[in-house]
Amino acid sequence: MSDDSRFYKRTIIKDELSSIHLQENRSLRIYLPPGYNELLSYPVIYCQDGEQFFNFGRIATTLTRCILDEDLEPTIVVGVDVNNVNRTSEYAPEGDRHDAYCRFFAEELLPYVESRYPVRTERTERIVAGDSLGGTVSLHLALDYPSLFCRVISLSGAFFDITRERIKAEDDLSWLEVYMLIGLDETDVKTERGTFDFVRENRLAKEEMDSKDVKLHYIEKPGKHLWGFWQGELDAALHYFLA
């Protein structure tokens, strides 16, 4: 029987970044992989809903296990916390804080992390990840800043009309790579903006992405719009980009 305790021996640094764009301090959680050495360089995963990715998604434990037992490449994770009061206004493309949040992410967060940690700065070495609306803002960040982001993990992304129109407006998205998961039990999901059939919305988004030649890894499987579903799927998403 393996000793699972070693999966919990990892470094997670809590930090705070003062943002001019958001006019507030934003809490960060930074995971440093086993064997971390500042003389080396590492891929980096930027997670929306940072607190949830660490507490409910257990990304630190999963990634540590994958690195120690499955030869996954050691990777740094930056979880960006969000105040739930502002979550929809920051993550939804029509939200009144969305533009400011995206500018914070691209113009403040990346330089801050890159000046303090040995993360690689090529866009292919950055992954931006999120669940539900976190998946939405992750995709929009790639569309708005293609020189910075080209790899997206979407766990049950909220890809509604405005996002599909944004995809449709692009000429060619063959540079974009998306890992897209949707649970087949997500046909009646209640959100702040109403009740949605996430399966239908994701299938329509997939059609738009396919028409623009996105490198799309699309998965449908039984699952609800909950971390209980996404947590068990993180392993496969990490392997897709890092193995």
Question: How does the helix and strand content classify structurally?
Answer: alpha/beta
Number of strands: 10
Q: What is the CATH domain class?
A: Alpha Beta
| Rg | 17 Å
The biggest beta sheet, please? 8 strands, mixed
According to CATH, the fold-level topology is Rossmann fold
Q: What order do the helices and strands follow?
A: EEEHHEHHEHEHEEEHEH
Large-scale geometry = globular
- What's the domain count? 1
Distance between the termini: 25 Å
DSSP helical segment count: 8
Just name the CATH architecture: 3-Layer(aba) Sandwich
Helix content, binned percent: 25-40%
CATH homologous superfamily name?
Alpha/Beta hydrolase fold, catalytic domain
How much of the polypeptide forms β-strand, as a percent range?
Answer: 15-25%
User: Biggest sheet, strands in spatial order?
Assistant: 1-2-4-3-5-6-7-10
* Poorly predicted regions: none
User: What's the mean pLDDT score?
Assistant: 96
Protein name: Esterase family protein
Organism: Paenibacillus marchantiophytorum
InterPro entries: AB_hydrolase_fold, Esterase-like, Mycobacterial_A85_antigen
Pfam families: Esterase
Write the layout of secondary structure elements.
Blueprint: E1 11-19, E2 24-32, E3 44-47, H1 50-55, H2 59-70, E4 76-80, H3 87-91, H4 98-116, E5 126-131, H5 133-144, E6 151-155, H6 161-168, E7 177-183, E8 189-191, E9 194-196, H7 198-211, E10 215-221, H8 227-242
Parallel strand pairs: 3-4, 3-5, 5-6, 6-7, 7-10
Antiparallel strand pairs: 1-2, 2-4, 8-9
Helix pairs in contact: 2-8, 4-5, 6-7
